[in-house]
Structure formats: C-alpha cells, structure tokens
Specification:
Elements lengths: L9 E3 L6 H17 L7 E7 L2 E8 L6 H8 L3 H9 L17 E7 L20 E7 L2 H11 L9 E5 L9 H9 L3 E4 L1 H9 L5 E2 L10 H6 L5 E4 L4 H6 L1 H9 L4 E2 L2 H16 L8 H4 L1
Parallel strand pairs: 6-7, 6-9, 7-8, 9-10
Antiparallel strand pairs: 1-4, 2-3, 4-5
Length: 287
Amino acid sequence: AGVHSGDSACSLPPRSLSKDIIAEIERQTTLMAKALEVQGLMNVQYAIQGGEIYVLEVNPRASRTVPFVAKAIGLPVAAIASRVMAGETLKSMNLKKPNPKHISVKEAVLPFARFPGVDTILGPEMRSTGEVMGLDENFGRAFAKSQIGAGVKLPTGGKVFISVREADKDLIEAPARELLAMGFSLIATRGTAKTLESKGLPVAVINKVLEGRPHVVDALKNGEINLVFNTTDGAQALSDSSSIRRAALTLKVPYYTTMAGAAAATQAIQALRAGSLEVAPLQSYSS
C-alpha cells in the first residue's frame, strides 16, 4: 500500500518528475478544482508509474504539507486561501506563479526512539509526529540540512552496510561507487556483495542475523558501521531485517530503506564533505 505521504521526504521543485509530467499534473489539478467548485485549498494525491498519472484521492481541505509549500515558494498559502473563502478573487491579489531558484526538502520526524521494540518500517498508517525542512541552492545541501533538522547525523567517513532487494541491485552501484570515491569502505550481505563485486567494487561480506555470528547487528553494536542502506521486499525479508533497523535506531546510525533515500544521503554526504553549511534567513530565498 506504500508509505503515508505525511511520513515521506519530498523536495520542491520535484527531482524525479519530468517537466511534461509536472505540467500535466497542474492541468489535471486545475480541471478538478474547477469541476468540484473548490474555493480555498484542495489536497490531491497522485501516483505516477510508467509515465501514467493516477489520482489516489482529492480532499477539499489543507494538508500538513501546506506550511512546507508556503515556506518553499515564499507565499502565504493558507492566508491566500482564507481570503478566497471569504470572497476575494485570486485575480485581485495580483499573484505571480512562483519560480523558486532554490531546493526545499521536507523530512518527517519519527518518534520510534521513544517506543522500544517497535519496528521502524513505514506503511500506510502515518507515524511521524512532525516535520522539518532544509533549503539551499542544490539538493545535496538541502537534504543534508533536512537530516540535521530531523536529528540525523550523517557520517563523512567510515563503513557502510548495504543489503538491498533483488529489484534494487542494479541501482545500488552508483551510490556505492560514490561512497567508495569519498573514502568509505563497504560491507554487504552475500547477495548484495556478489552484485557489487561483479561491478568491480571492493566489498567485504558479513552474515545476516539468521546466518550466525558475527553478523551485522554485532557489527553495529561494536561501532563498526556508520551508515546503513537496507531495502527489503516481502514479509519474511521485513521480519528478518527488523533487528538491523532496531539496532541502527538505538545506536543512532543513519539508515535508509529506499534507493531514493540512499541516493539522497550520498549526495548529502558529498555536500557535507565539500564544506560547512551556511545559515540564511528564510526570506532571502524568496526575495
């Protein structure tokens, strides 16, 4: 069923959507708003697969993403919507379509550390208790700021544990190669290690928990792992990897459970290694 949108990280402008897809989403949203005669805010959830756009749901209300969008584009979205609901027209406000030159990244804040024994895997039920955002001129720096805001301390060196599902094995090469170029070393479960070795990447093999000690959780507890990329598929794989997620959370080791997250984290680490992150007033991004 996927992950609840409130628990997701996202960027504005979108990174993974083409200009044609974005334009078509805008067209469909406008048509739906007019057909439903919405005055005020409307929340639409889309899913995109293979270039096809699917509408999941439409709600004539604000969502928790509105404050993020307002700060990202520099417009008081909720105030504008309130004025429209009170009878003003958008035309009378002389609004211009925002065209931000910066990247804004929203990250969810999750409360798992306060609930011992709870699995950290996300699903259709929202788990997050808040959100933070990072803004900068490029995605890597913006994502790094969002992680700092969420309490995640990304490493700039050390050892990365990688274990990915079959569908992600062709995608893991790029971030793994970039991490090696930055001086990280790699350890992986046997299947993932075989894939990385076939790409010419040096990697050490470590046991899954079920394969006996010393295994990956032992390595986490011994402070030997500084970053975790772990994607799973299927109920059994999720169950088998729950101890890895729990140990990483308890020991405050950053862990990412999607390839998009792994790629973003790699870019953020590159940004952190390139130099310190500057702090700027929010208004400076929209002026």
